[in-house]
Amino acid sequence: MKMHTVRVYPSAEPLPTRDQLAWKLAEVASASAPLDAAAVEMLANRVIDNAGVALAAINRTPVRNAREQALAHPRPSGATLFGIDSTRFFDAEWAAWANGVAVRELDMHDTFLAADYSHPGDNLPPLIAVAQQCGRSGADLVRGALAAYEIQISLVRGICLHEHKKDHVAHLCPAQAAGIGAMLGLSTEVIYQAIQQAVHVSFATRQSRKGEISSWKAYAPAHAGKLAVEAVDRAMRGERAPSPIYEGEDSVIAYMLSGKKAEYEIGLPEPEEPRRAILDSYTKEHSAEYQSQALIDLAFRMRERLSSTDDVRRITIHTSHHTHYVIGTGAGDPQKFSPTASRETLDHSIMYLFAVALQDGVWHHVRSYLPERAARPDTVRLWQSVETVEDPEWTRRYHDPDPAKRSFGGRVVIEMADGSRVEDELAVANAHPAGAHPFARQGYVGKFDALTEGLVSREERGRFVSLCERLPDLKAGELAELNVPLAESALESTQRNQRGIF
Fold first, then answer.
1. 374, 346 in Cβ contact below 8 A?
2. Alpha carbon 483 to chain centroid distance?
3. What is the secondary structure of 290-334 as a DSSP string?
4. How far apart (Å, rounded) are the C-alpha atoms in residues 435 and 431?
5. Fewer CB in 10 Å around end: N or C, the chain?
6. Where are the domains of the chain?
7. What is the pLDDT of residues 45-65, one digit of tens each?
8. Residues 295, 353 contacting (CB under 8 angstroms)
9. Are 128 and 471 in contact (CB under 8 A)?
10. What's the CA gap between 155 and 176, in Å, rounded?
11. Which residues pair with residue 282 across a beta bridge?
């Protein structure tokens, strides 16, 4: 690993191309690094994970609408859509769009948290779509996907976006472009231009995750993937990009991030170093914002020590700066306490999540968010008794430089009506690599089964999982089978229609 200092350069002090961050990212993508067996196995797990959460959301309105848009763009020998028969193909950018929305809708796939936050599994829909359309092999896909994970996680470690109210897709889109470039075996120069274009078009505000959160939370990563596919296509045709995109006098760092005096340190692997960053990311067992995962598990555990939640007077969650200000009471969002709030808002309200987990002792990706569940009077009362407090120690642990010590949970104090208190804490979720029950292949397959119950037969699940397990050895034609079709009767929309423009 080598650290690179990134800062703004005035136009009078031109920065050589090879010293620019975008070029260094492109070098990571274009290098022929050896594969790490554990990283390859984890990638297969994440392909299984993405498919499970996508199929569980297959008939939700945002997913159906995105699929209908893709259905309007058929293409012979293109890419497949989740749920749709694998003999039907569509333009890769639209398949990336529809599949990306499906993967992101339930907020239940993988995560990485450091200086900023991310869902690196969002890299996979555009890479798989392009691989299918361009006739690439499983080995090509593995190389591209591990490069994309590496680049996104490196950016997330070094550059904070959310403090400047920028959405995390600004790190995702260049990673997607780099991963596609790596998968296609493009030159460093072409990948460099594609990365810069991807950065330039993907900066957006965090309003998509503030206030009344809408379905755009699911669409944003898919939009980034669509932009990345287009950026790579333009770069392959010889189009160039604004440069230097990070260090320029009027560019990203100068006017969208910490300003002209800022310096960032970005760690990137050496050319011969295996791309292992995927192993530092972690998936979700529960369908909710990642910072809630440990606290949901903690609610399950604390529930066993309560005779009844009706006797709870107040709940205080002592946690990190991020959890307090993004999904806690520090956000100042009244919608996070509203029984009529959208699902997207509720899964970003730790007050709601903890209250329901404490009452139910289970978490379900559908039932836990039903309007009637959110509106239960006893739940509303308990929910509104919850507050969060930033604890400097939990903030320090959240940012610990050692991934094995980094903590995303908190300490909870439950005050009862009789004056007694129940206290407990949990640093990481049970499914986290350092948790009580770390997810391995069996955990991912079990999660897939739970999410697709009644949709996918055991035979079809076995076929798909077997394909994922052979990922590095798949021939070009086999990648079209890296999909899980459903019976037409299980899908609410399978044909092009005229509800929109397309």
1. yes
2. 19
3. GGGHHHHHHHHHHHTT-S-GGGEEEEEEEE-HHIIIIISGGG--G
4. 6
5. N
6. 2-280, 290-426
7. 999 999 999 999 999 999 999
8. yes
9. no
10. 12
11. 111
> Per residue in 362-388, pLDDT tens?
999 999 999 999 999 999 999 999 999
The type of residue at 304 is E
The model carries a pTM of 0.91
> Is residue 21 within 8 Å of residue 247, measured between CB atoms?
yes
CATH topology of domain 290-426: 60s Ribosomal Protein L30; Chain: A; (3.30.1330)
- Tell me the pLDDT tens digit for each residue of 2-35: 999 999 999 999 999 999 999 999 999 999 999 9
Beta bridge partners of 316: 387, 413
CA distances from 106 to 123, 218, 313, 442, 452 (A): 16, 8, 31, 21, 13
User: How far apart are alpha carbons 148 and 232 in whole angstroms?
Assistant: 14
Q: What is the DSSP string of 196-259?
A: HHHHHHH--BGGGGSSS--THHHHHHHHHHHHHHHHHHHHHTT----SSTTTSTTSHHHHTSS-
Do residues 21 and 4 make contact, with C-beta atoms less than 8 angstroms apart? yes
Q: Which fold has domain 2-280?
A: 2-methylcitrate dehydratase PrpD (1.10.4100)
Q: What CA–CA distance (Å, rounded) separates 210 from 344?
A: 10
Q: How far, rounded to the nearest angstrom, does the alpha carbon of residue 372 sit from its chain's CA centroid?
A: 28
- The whole-angstrom separation of Cα 343 and Cα 61 is 12
Calpha distance 442→149 (Å, rounded): 22
